[in-house]
Write a structure and sequence with these properties.
With about 270 residues, this protein is mostly helical. About 85% of the residues lie in helices and about 0% in strands.
């Protein structure tokens, strides 16, 4: 067992929980908002995944089989699958965000301000980050179990008869700290992107212009398509580099959207 790997797991997991909550706290305090907006963002993200994940399990296998039957080239098949996953996620999540701002916020008399949009997007991206942190801690438990000799040798030998399982165990045992850190970078960039998409969707509602919703769907889809394709083709670090560039562009769009929405009411009226 490698102590730096264990400490990196702990650092990443704790950071992926603490940073979204700290960001939410800063937004709440700075603009005098209520935590319920952050919670709404988190709850609607969960709702989106309750819809997203079962549909994905239902639709992706037949789609993948069909793609592989007509595209024998693995590279082209990967492009087709990336397109499906990206467009599906973008349309579903941004569509739900649009319904939240156009229906739920109005029904609950929640001001459609840029400040509330910022906090809602923080909650949406933040809870996703926290869920990923739970997976990180699960990975830590698996790493400790595998590398500390806690698995019975007979069970381990039986497992190793499966080549894919043997490869997974070998990869887990060979982890280095730099294999774990990219996940933290990706989560921070993804929060920026979720806030960007949130403000674009809010702008679509406030200006009654579907072009902004389409832009949010397209940008979300492009990021996911690129991530799926690049991680399967170039590996993790080039993919993380691309996500950083997408987030940098997103930060610029976020600032533009913030200014385009403008001040609509007193920040404390949430």
């Amino acid at each position: 067992m490698n102590l730096p790997v264990v400490l990196t797991f702990l650092l990443v997991g704790v950071a992926e929980i603490a940073i979204p909550l700290l960001l939410g706290y800063i937004v709440v305090r700075k603009f005098g908002l209520q935590w319920k907006i952050f919670v709404y963002g988190a709850l609607f993200f969960i709702l989106s995944q309750v819809i997203h994940i079962p549909l994905l399990y239902l639709l992706q296998p037949p789609y993948s089989e069909w793609v592989e039957s007509i595209l024998p080239d693995p590279a082209l098949a990967l492009v087709a699958i990336a397109l499906f996953l990206g467009l599906f996620a973008g349309a579903l999540e941004e569509g739900i965000r649009y319904l939240v701002f156009s229906r739920f916020f109005r029904r609950e008399n929640i001001p459609q301000t840029r400040e509330n949009g910022l906090l809602f997007g923080t909650g949406w991206g933040g809870i996703e980050c926290i869920f990923v942190a739970l997976l990180v801690f699960s990975g830590l438990v698996s790493y400790i179990t595998v590398t500390s000799g806690m698995i019975d040798p007979a069970i381990l030998n039986a497992t190793l008869t499966d080549p894919s399982a043997a490869e997974s165990l070998a990869e887990l045992a060979a982890l280095a700290p730099l294999d774990i850190l990219p996940g933290l970078l990706e989560r921070m960039m993804t929060i920026i992107l979720h806030i960007t998409w949130t403000l674009l969707v809010l702008l679509a509602v406030l200006k009654a212009r579907m072009a902004f919703l389409i832009a949010a769907i397209a940008y979300h889809s492009v990021v996911d398509i690129a991530a799926v394709y690049m991680v399967g083709t170039f590996g993790i670090w080039p993919t993380e580099g691309a996500i950083v560039l997408f987030a940098a562009l997103g930060a610029g769009i976020l600032v533009w959207s913030w200014n385009a929405i403008g001040e609509r009411s007193e920040p404390g009226t949430s």
